[in-house]
From TrEMBL:
SUPFAM superfamilies listed in its UniProt record: alpha/beta knot, L30e-like
Keyword Methyltransferase: yes
The UniProt record lists the keyword Transferase: yes
Keyword list, A-Z: Methyltransferase, Transferase
GO MF terms, alphabetically ordered: RNA binding; RNA methyltransferase activity
Segments forming domain RNA 2-O ribose methyltransferase substrate binding: 44-120
Coiled-coil regions listed in the entry: none
GO biological process, one term: methylation
Entry similarity comment: Belongs to the class IV-like SAM-binding methyltransferase superfamily. RNA methyltransferase TrmH family.
Species whose genome carries this gene: Oharaeibacter diazotrophicus
Gene3D superfamilies reported in the protein's UniProt record: 3.30.1330.30, 3.40.1280.10
One GO term describing the cellular component: cytoplasm
Name of the protein in its database record: TrmH family RNA methyltransferase
One Pfam family named in its UniProt record: SpoU_methylase
Length: 277
């Protein structure tokens, strides 16, 4: 007989942790460090929405941790059951343990541990009408996460991280994506590899540059586009600026001499995707 009761994790499927000295707490806390994330291929994300977004697209969830204060909430119980059914670990922990894991005084009551996913650059073949974003040496994880979220919002296809960028799997970057990282492919490439790929990808490279003479509203054109943005302090390096098919600038009427990187990228993306929105 079919049951209409929501799926929940059975008591034997849940591990309870209240001790801050538990080795699992130490391992999860270490995910705040890039070295440990690189070694394990895991990353930490806060909030039930992040876990449910990942589960909805079959993104691997290694562990779900939740406070005992929310264990009886149907959405939390269902998420825990799905994580267990897919081979993940379910942890019922104290709020003190959650604070220790997240390094925050007021952590969210649900935390997930996810598998990292990066797409090879060779698999990126932009089609007509598609827009990708290439970010060179971006340093601010908040900017990176916000750009990923904006890419998702406008229906662009993905983000290529060029050179020594900040880690897209840091807690700050993941938080800023608001779950969009599970919908936006991420690619890592050296500057040399990206430039070599761009020569054979049959795509227009549109870059923003202070010395550009073209207005950003003239950037849209038929065919695939890669929007190339430089880092927060110095903009594009000369090799990437020279590789751009067209360089544009966003005019400003006030006293500011530059825009925040995430804001500028958002302005460009909405212009490039104008006909599709």
């Amino acid at each position: 007989m079919r049951s209409d009761r929501p799926e929940t994790a059975a008591p034997g499927q849940v591990k309870q942790i209240t001790s801050l000295a538990n080795p699992l707490v130490k391992d999860l806390r270490a995910l705040a460090m890039k070295k440990h994330r690189d070694e394990t291929g895991l990353f930490l994300g806060e909030g039930l929405k992040l876990v449910t977004d990942a589960l909805a697209v079959n993104w691997p969830v290694d562990t779900i941790c939740f406070s005992g204060s929310v264990r009886d909430q149907p959405a939390v119980a269902q998420a825990a059951a799905k994580v267990h059914a897919r081979g993940g670990t379910v942890l019922d922990v104290s709020e003190a343990v959650l604070g220790k894991i997240t390094r925050r005084d007021n952590p969210q009551m649900v935390v997930g541990v996810f598998r990292q996913r990066l797409r090879p650059l060779a698999e990126v073949r932009p089609a007509d009408g598609e827009v990708w974003v290439a970010l060179e040496q971006v340093r601010d994880p908040g900017n990176l996460g916000t750009i990923v979220r904006t890419v998702d919002s406008v229906g662009a296809k993905g983000v290529i991280l060029v050179g020594e960028t900040c880690d897209p799997f840091s807690v700050e970057a993941v938080r800023a994506t608001m779950g969009s990282m599970f919908h936006v492919p991420l690619v890592r490439a050296s500057r040399e590899a990206f430039l070599a790929w761009a020569k054979t990808a049959r795509t227009r490279l549109v870059g923003t540059h202070l010395k550009a003479t073209h207005d950003y509203r003239r950037a849209a054109a038929p065919g695939p586009v890669v929007l190339v943005m430089g880092n927060e302090q110095q903009g594009l390096t000369e090799p990437l600026a020279e590789a751009c098919t067209v360089r544009v600038k966003i005019p400003m009427a006030g006293q500011a001499d530059s825009l925040n990187l995430a804001v500028a990228t958002g302005v460009m993306l909405y212009e490039l995707r104008r006909d599709a929105l």
